[in-house]
């Protein structure tokens, strides 16, 4: 019989939730193996186009569900490679949300104050940049001017971008050729490799089972590097601890498929999914009115049709991030550049007869594509997503060679969720249509249902075993030695981009995972500096009471 590969820790996925534990545990002395279903792409592999078969489709996973579709990362570095690098911290009120369960969703041990030192660690490790108005894009500047004109405020968004290196090419969604975007490829993952961690791309984990000594056996398939529908082999690896960080759209599927071998999963596995309350609006800008009303102009052409220059989101309106407002009435409005493709399909023509995502009116607005402004709405939803029976392999039934699949997620927006969308839509309309600056309309839900680029909460942490899959320390209930540290662990919608919070929670989970490994005989310690050697953040968290559950 062929010997089974063995390690101390298997980490499933290499985005924020996988890369951060990979570094800390490897630096602490554990033997770490990271299994990533996607390819390993470097800066030279990222292409400045959005063609089928390019780095764009190789690095993304778009899964169409029943009422909700999810766009996520599928490569070494995960979502950090394809995200827009906006890194705000969650508002204080988020941690007090009740949502659909009628009581506090977050564990009592976690508040904005208690999470602050972990935010600081991430800020130091990436690092996160505070932008000023000279850093924002044309689209961000226009959105800021429109907000000001309507009596609202606007702020440059904090980003994980080296503005000195960034060339403002606006191909962030296809990966950064210049390593200006601070993805996991530029910090935690190289540091993990330097400490001996192994990263295995094109390894798609299918299920887990328990070993005789209380550890875990992890089964995986090898994926063809060009056609993700093709499996070229399979394998197994054993570990004392498993960390699942495959993303909120895949982590619960792996656990559901493992139930036959591991025993009953907690009720919260595959339930309470949140799309971060997300929605998109497309505004068609009137160049003449922008010049007349806002006084914006450019010597070399129309003021706004240069919207493709710059970065993704650079300016946000946070006026409604007010904890005194009722739940489901709090949201942020963020300018966003969305490239051709999905955005072009789902955008509706403002005004006219519904549906307006196809037909003569849509054809006319496509001629004005250079004058589109996309506004990204992040609201409070009701965690109404539920995962059905998992597919035989992977997180979805693969439809195309790359990127596209059909998944088991079902999402039926509640009146609370729809109420939040309606308020945010109306506010966006009031801002951008004031004095004829533009005409705006939400993207259609008719084609792929609602949609999110920030899936959350499908295996969330909490104090209540009836509504949370994980203990507050991220360990799977009734399954010691299995941890979930990715976006699936976040309890609910954050009203802002969630990457910073996902990363902070991953940082916070490490001491508990170290203790579990120590209890299983692994000689591992906690206390590594930031990936670049900085120790300010380490000193901050060392002052915390790092006992289980904190």
From TrEMBL:
GO annotation terms (biological process): cholesterol metabolic process
> Which Pfam families is this protein grouped with?
GMC_oxred_C (PF05199), GMC_oxred_N (PF00732)
Instruction: Print the organism lineage.
Output: Bacteria, Bacillati, Actinomycetota, Actinomycetes, Pseudonocardiales
Q: What's the protein name?
A: Cholesterol oxidase
This protein's species is Amycolatopsis mediterranei (strain S699)
Kindly state which keywords UniProt assigns to this record, in alphabetical order.
Cholesterol metabolism, FAD, Flavoprotein, Isomerase, Lipid metabolism, Oxidoreductase, Steroid metabolism, Sterol metabolism
Q: Which family is this protein grouped under?
A: Belongs to the GMC oxidoreductase family.
Query: What is the required cofactor set for this protein?
Result: FAD
- Note whether Transcription regulation occurs among the keywords: no
Q: Where is the Glucose-methanol-choline oxidoreductase N-terminal domain?
A: 68-272
